[in-house]
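In response to reviewer comment 3 from the previous cycle, which asked for concrete evidence that the modeling workflow produces usable outputs, we include below a single protein chain processed end to end. The sequence was submitted unchanged, and the resulting structure tokens are shown without manual editing.
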Amino acid sequence: MELKVNGARLQVEADPAMPLLWVLRDLLQMTGTKFGCGIAACGACTVRIDGQAVRSCVMPVGSVAGKAIQTIEGLGNAGRPHPLQAAWIAEQVPQCGYCQSGMLMAAAALLERKPKPTDADIDEAMTNICRCGTYQRVRVAIKRAAGTKT
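The workflow returned the following structure tokens.
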């Protein structure tokens, strides 16, 4: 099947029921998207499908064929980071870093939908779990990226 990942059209041979997470990690070698829980609870596996934050560990790859898939590898890069990535660094959000790619993808979906989010908007959108407890820094970083840091 053909997938559109980070703007590139890629051919993969996979069972349509295979979770997108494993197609990305095992077949396409895109390991930035992390496995956390396998039941869509933690958000470590969050990617964007047509702009929406989606937990890839429970998303059958067959259901996303032809849709725009964005992973952390497509968000930005060292030479040209996404505003969220720059804000994450400026606010020293990551500790262990394991959940951060999923957090960034959820935050990117939020800012696309609501460019100037309120605290309530952030609370509603950011349901990812961070064992290190960096939630307050995540909030500040999202506001920084949105240009609303107080």
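The mean pLDDT is 96. We consider this sufficient to address the reviewer's concern, and the full set will be provided in the supplementary archive.
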